[in-house]
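Recall the central idea of this unit: under ordinary conditions, the amino acid sequence of a chain determines the structure it adopts. In this exercise we apply that idea directly, starting from the sequence alone.
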Amino acid sequence: MAAQEIESGTSWGKELWDQFDNLATHTQKGIDFFERFGNFIRDRSAIEVEYALKLRRLVKNYQPKKSKEDEENEFSSLIAFKNVLKEVADLAGQREVVAENLQNQVLQNIMLLSKILREERKKALNQGAGLTQSLHTQIGTLDRAKRSYEKAFREAEKAIESYHKADADFHLSRADVEKQRVNMNIRNSQSEDAKSEYANQLQITNKQQQQHYQIALPEVFNKLQELDEKRTRGMKEFIKRAADVEYEVSPIIARCLEGMVKAADSINEKDDSMIVIEKYQSGFQPPGDIPFEDLSKSDPDASNNSQTHNSSTGLNHMTGKGTTKDKLKKRVGIFGIFTGNKNNLSTDGLKEDFSDLPPTQRRKKLTAKVQELQQKVAQEQAASDGLMKMKGVYEANSMLGDPRTVEEQLNESVNRLDRLRHELGRYQKLLEQANNQTFIQHSPQSNRVTQNGQRSSRHSNGSSNHENSHEDNGEDHPDDAGSLSSSASPESGLGTSHTSLPGSGQGSTNEQPMNEEYYEAETPLGTCRALYPFDATSEGSIPMSEGEELQVIEVDQGDGWTRVRRFSSKGWEEGFVPTSYIECTLYA
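Accordingly, the structure predicted from this sequence is:
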């Protein structure tokens, strides 16, 4: 291979035979650059990890808060956004995979190859330095041999010259001439020896120099060339490997992006609009037309009835929006003092029978509750059947187990199943009542008020117990004033005093006892006795003392309040009291 490289003219040993120092510097810079590429991969991997971490933090920060109500009525846009967040989380996972593969498959191999290249370079440079030092040593020996030869040659020439002078001088004795001849021969011999040594060292030096520049040093340079090409091939392979790491996750990333597009396509504005209707529809009817009131009549009773009718109509108009969140908050504020007794609330702040919700929402909640209880009954029934089978197996083969150990569990399961079935029956009955109930007005209060001087008192099941009507002969009846008192119940949050009846509330300038003829039009449904004292803290309610007897005018409509009246020093007073505070005895 080295011969082929020399022949092709790509061998450093042939083309760069005299560039030892430059090749040493070049290979050092190449390895430094290779390690810098490794640092680039390391920093990029750190950025990928940080990017994935920030994506996950982004998903966590923008994750919608979970609530039971939202799970039941989730908008398509919200579901799509949750799916987008899932896809972004998956993208973060793929960035973490990229970072991990870059570290394990690229960065570690770069560091390993860099270490090998440094070791090979060091070994090659040490070998080249040794060869160069050996050649320089031989050249030094040759220089010394040459200087010795030059010195011996000059001394031999002087000896020859001295001998010829002595031989030509007739004044010297033959002994002196012989002495010069002997000296000449010695110097000539030394010159020949130095010449031979110089020729020998020259031959050795030339041979070593030829071997150094044609064989030994080219091998070192070829090793440097090989490791430098290995470094270059490594750069090529690792850049491709880094790209392959991206290619490997690109199908998953593409699926994540497709999931985002699919989530966007799943958004349906019409379905979301229907969810808004299902979520907030009360089931009440819009208010009717407000009748014209002729104020030219001078009859004080008619004027009084007109004021009462205006108040009643205005109340109906004010409650025409159905049961809203503001109204629910107001009712909770009024009923909050009774939550410690019999008005039990569910975990979401609603009554267990959902009677404080609008009709449509109540039916929806009751349906969901029935389905939930049916599922629990089915699960408990399956568990009970399993215990029965286990008990039968134990009774058939006592070696498998003691039937008495299962009997206790079976009894507990049967008790739980009975409780669940009882609760299921109760909610099914409530749902049936809610489905059969007819809503003719636009709010719970309006069910207690009728227009044009007619009044209806109903039991909590919606059936009418007592109804008195008066013919419209141009005269207003005091029963219209009573309708204001009924509408200004504590649950509506409206009213002017403990009693909203004319002559007994703050709406009248002259306080007068209530005319008994007013109550002749509305026969009491029964009597009640106060079990606990009650201070009227809300508008539309009246106080009572423990043991006090009152007349029941209207039974509880499911809101926890009963309308009663009593006779006091101011005359007849009428208002609402909490149902849990009284014991009622209704007439047959």
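The longest helix spans residues 76-168.
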